[in-house]
Design goal:
alpha/beta; 7 strands; seven-stranded mixed β-sheet; single chain; 235 residues; Rossmann fold; globular
């Protein structure tokens, strides 16, 4: 199937299955698909040299990376409206999920944080190529970013959560900030979160169906009732 056809059908499926996604995409559907296609071309151009994603072909890139990034768009939009529009994508890599989300949510501000120089370079190039005025790129680690700035932090294909990483993520959050992690099977999420159980942490895993993908996907949402400055006291 042609890349454009697959992407268009996947977007249509997301819209059909989630009224919030439909409301977000419907007014700009053609523009969003056009920008996503340009983004896919940028990934395919730079991927051989930069090893941005592990997709074996365009179909896998569309399904496992682009549509996967957009599957929880309705949830991300609601979280952003609840907490504020300052969103960080930690360990952004090729800009996933940050760039697809930024394309679909132009009113939100996205900071793509990537520690590897050549991948950060790709992100700067993609921002310019797509003219994404709502995107900022920072080269570095989330642990070393200026704290207390972000209302929502997303990450995908990132290392498993542990107390040190969770502390770093919450320290980068503003008061009331939320962490939204792209994850797979619920059983694995429960195993990952078990060592982090704490009365001051609340989490939930919301299912996110990815079009054309017969694999379990969830968005893991983590909240804390401690101010970011005091978060190290609980880990």
């Amino acid at each position: 199937m042609k890349t454009e056809t697959l992407l268009s059908q996947g977007i249509e499926t997301l819209r059909r299955n989630d009224a919030d996604i439909d409301c977000l995409i419907a007014p700009r559907c053609g523009e969003i698909i056009s920008l996503l296609l340009r983004y896919i071309k940028e990934i395919e151009l730079f991927n051989p040299a930069y090893s941005l994603v592990g997709a074996k072909d365009s179909e896998e890139l569309v399904i496992k990376h682009i549509l996967d990034s957009l599957a929880p768009l309705g949830i991300i939009s609601r979280l952003s409206a609840e907490t504020g529009g300052q969103i960080a994508d930690a360990g952004s890599g090729a800009g996933l999920p940050g760039i697809p989300l930024a394309i679909a949510l132009p009113a939100c501000r996205f900071t793509l944080i990537e520690r590897m120089g050549r991948r950060a370079g790709f992100l700067w190039n993609a921002k310019a190529a797509l003219n994404l005025s709502n995107v900022t790129v920072e080269e570095g680690e989330i642990e070393k970013t200026a704290g207390g700035r972000f209302s929502l932090i997303t990450f995908r294909a990132f290392k498993p959560l542990d107390p040190k990483l969770l502390t770093a993520l919450f320290k980068a959050c503003a008061d009331g900030g939320v962490i939204a992690a792209y994850k797979g099977r619920l059983e694995k999420i429960e195993q990952e979160m078990a060592p982090l159980e704490n009365p001051r942490i609340r989490w939930e895993a919301l299912p996110c169906a990815v079009p054309f993908l017969e694999e379990e996907r969830h968005l893991l949402i983590i909240r804390s009732n401690l101010p970011p400055a005091n978060f190290s006291a609980m880990c």
